[in-house]
Design goal:
With about 210 residues, this protein is mainly α. It has a single domain, classed as VKOR domain (de novo design (two linked rop proteins)). Helix content is about 75%, strand content about 0%. It has eight helices and no strands. The N and C termini lie far apart (about 65 Å).
Amino acid sequence: MSEQAIEVDAAEDEDFRPSASRHRGTYIEMLISSLISLSASLVLSVEAWLLAKDPDAIFSCDVSSKISCGRVASSWQATLLGFPNAFLGLIFEPIVITIAIAALGGVKFPRWFMISAQCLYTIAIAFAYWLFLQAYFVIGALCPWCLTVTVATTLVFASITRVNILDGNIRFGRFQPSVVRGLRLGVDTGIAVLVIAIIAAMVVYRYV
């Protein structure tokens, strides 16, 4: 291999090496989003407990028939797995918070661990969107706390996906350089903002 080719390869390696500053901002975003989701899950868990004690309980977010945490919490979708869905947030969000804090402290997790976290959060975001669509089209009521979890889950998913791609845990073969370049340009942030904007537009269209 010529000296010029070696220099080009080195330049490309430098070009697509994960940025420490980019990672730090990503992990801070992941931490904040997870804390918000955990807080909302805690409120929803308390409401589920109160609703179990008193089916006629009225919550602060029960503004109308269309904006009502109680109405959503009373649906079968809210206990799809046999217990309040909010309990899942109490289980999984602390794991994400731990990952973010440890990573900010310099810990680098093995590829299998980060891929496992990615798979779990992919299931989590699919479940969150399913619940949102069920509330929107089937239940016909909006739960502000549930909506908060959906938005926060979107941001956490975007963060963990960004880290996994930049670290090479998720690979796209010959398209990897293009994907990484897109992340460096903020394409992933744009997609996350677009998804949240679509959700916001849907909410405004039906409930405002």
